[in-house]
């Protein structure tokens, strides 16, 4: 996520003024005023893409692009959303981060997934490989895509274990997302998503 660095600069001017009436200066002192030059303002760094891969959680981001500015910011928010989605699947508890990064509709959808998985005593683990791509920003609106590869993930319920294919995750899943910039805040909100075939 982007971070802005605020630098406060002050100028200090020190002057020694010679007195009036012909008084002599003490030996060793000078009357030349000195000034500290005014430093130029530090430029605000452009946001850059973060690789949010987390081996402990079991998520790997592949083909991480080199983006800057709003595109990098949106990429990072989508990657964060994907990371918290995977955390939710692994823990059967909706990640608290969704209250910050996802619309109420997506939060509700994630709760339904958790409720269903809890009901069947689902256990999901292993590794999710995922790629964020095709980020585009127009003003305060953005779009992006995610490709999920569950081939290294593990699935089980109260009765047995399943291959990714048996669990319905045999093919890579393509998801399209829309995001909106939160007014007055340094963040984007993931507003909608749509699963649309494979990738």
Level of helix content? 10-25%
Strand order of the largest sheet: 3-5-6-9-10
Mean pLDDT: 84
Q: Which structural category do the helix and sheet elements fall into?
A: alpha+beta
The number of helical runs is: 3
Distance between the termini: 26 Å
Rounded radius of gyration (Å):
27 Å
Q: Approximately how much beta-strand content do the residues carry?
A: 25-35%
Regions with pLDDT < 50 over 5+ consecutive residues? 1-33
Q: Which series of helices and strands comes N to C?
A: EEEHHHEEEEEEE
Identify the overall geometry: globular
Number of DSSP strand runs: 10
Biggest sheet: strands, sense, closure?
5 strands, mixed
Entry keywords:
199 residues; alpha+beta; 5-stranded mixed sheet; 3-stranded antiparallel sheet; 3 helices; globular; disordered N terminus
């Amino acid at each position: 996520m982007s971070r802005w660095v605020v630098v406060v600069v002050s100028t200090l001017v020190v002057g020694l003024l010679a007195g009036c009436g012909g008084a002599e200066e003490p030996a060793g002192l000078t009357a030349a005023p000195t000034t500290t030059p005014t430093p130029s303002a530090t430029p605000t760094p452009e946001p850059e893409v973060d690789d949010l891969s987390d081996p402990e959680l079991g998520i790997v981001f592949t083909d991480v692009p080199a983006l800057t500015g709003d595109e990098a910011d949106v990429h990072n928010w989508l990657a964060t959303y994907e990371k918290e989605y995977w955390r939710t699947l692994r823990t059967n508890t909706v990640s608290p981060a969704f209250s910050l990064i996802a619309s109420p509709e997506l939060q509700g959808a994630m709760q339904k997934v958790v409720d269903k998985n809890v009901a069947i005593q689902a256990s999901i683990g292993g590794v999710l490989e995922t790629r964020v791509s095709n980020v585009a920003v127009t003003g305060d609106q953005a779009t992006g895509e995610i490709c999920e590869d569950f081939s290294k993930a593990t699935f089980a319920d109260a009765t047995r274990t399943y291959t990714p294919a048996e669990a319905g995750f045999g093919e890579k899943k393509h998801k399209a997302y829309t995001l909106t910039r939160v007014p007055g805040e340094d963040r984007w909100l993931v507003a909608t998503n749509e699963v649309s075939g494979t990738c």
